[in-house]
Design goal:
The chain is mainly α. It has four helices and no strands. Helix 1 crosses helix 3 and helix 2 packs antiparallel against helix 3.
Length: about 100
């Protein structure tokens, strides 16, 4: 995962989109991807209800990946380490689960 994060960050550098002044645009792109995923899941849940089989569309997998790319770039723009963010969140849920 770290290798992919570094590749995405390098891609963002090449494209010139990791400038912190673009963080609002990057967040808007993330929201767009999430809305697209939500719409696809609605369709897929309908398919599950109709046919009894849950089939995840390749397009949804790509959009899920697109959302991850936008988060990698957004974290870079804000000077955050994505792995550290995930680790912090995991510690929080692990602690909450233990209660």
């Amino acid at each position: 995962m770290n290798e992919l994060i570094k590749k995405v960050e390098a891609w963002g550098e090449e494209k010139g989109i990791v400038d912190p002044s673009n963080a609002d645009k990057q967040f808007a792109k993330f929201k767009e991807d999430v809305i697209w995923i939500e719409a696809m899941l609605d369709v897929e849940v309908t398919n599950y209800a109709s046919y009894g089989d849950y089939v995840l569309c390749d397009k949804t997998k790509v959009k899920f990946g697109d959302a991850l790319v936008t988060l990698v770039i957004l974290a870079k723009q804000l000077g955050m380490d994505l792995e550290e963010c995930l680790s912090t969140a995991y510690k929080k849920i692990r602690t909450a689960r233990a209660r």
